[in-house]
Amino acid sequence: MPEYRECLAHFLFLLWFLQYCQQKNLDLHVLGLWADKTMGKAAKRRKIPASQDMVFQLNNTSRDKRGNKGNQGFLWPPMWQRTLKNQDSPSINQLEWKGVKTTMRAVILDFGLLHFQLAYLTHTSIQCFHMRTWETVVKPSPCSNRGYRIALAFEFHDYVVAFLSIDNLVQPLWVESASELPPPPTDVYDFPVFLSEVAGWIREWLMSNRSSYACEVIRKDGKKVFGGVGVYTVCELFFDAEVFDCPSQTARLCEAFWTFAHRSHTHLA
């Protein structure tokens, strides 16, 4: 699961870059979509020719997908793919970057005619390459030399906005209207609603088997409530919650430990 602070940082960076481009009156029509190929375990073990390890440009016949097994999305807008029934598909140049939003698991780009959501299934970084750097450094470099994969890149006139990943594990989603996007998890900043959902989750959770570590429960069983709490954030939250700085919480922990030991002595004696 992506981290709260990671998603927020990506959003703020993209928002800053979008505002910078708008202030400079740069052309933000999409000129092309680019991506690196994915490789299976067998392919990783053998040497790949450099010519097959370069970033490639997608087109309206591309069927490349990314995401978890059984739940993958197209990199090229599926509604704009060229098919036997749709020979005259719209040009990608009709898309113009107009806005950016975030959830605690994904970023959403507004392209006017379409909306694009990219969920960070694992750690993903965003890089804005100047066109000169893109043409002279990134495109000629095999992926194995770069040390990262381009999950998807949007080419504009002056810059290329690229989502970079080690394993290409991202979840793309194209929709024609923002209302078609799946509902995001509640942001903790909407605190009253967040607390209400936590309380509801606890009521359900109390009725289930409770044999997992608290940090695992929050990250996995409670992921619909604790959006953005990943393996790193959960450690910081436990530290910030000051469990051992709160006398009552520490007392309850010690009493639970004593009760556990007492029960062991009593039952095993």
Automatic annotation (TrEMBL):
Keyword Signal applies: yes
Domain of life: Eukaryota
Keyword terms of this UniProt record: Signal
Keyword Signal: yes
Residues annotated as signal peptide: 1-23
Protein name: Uncharacterized protein
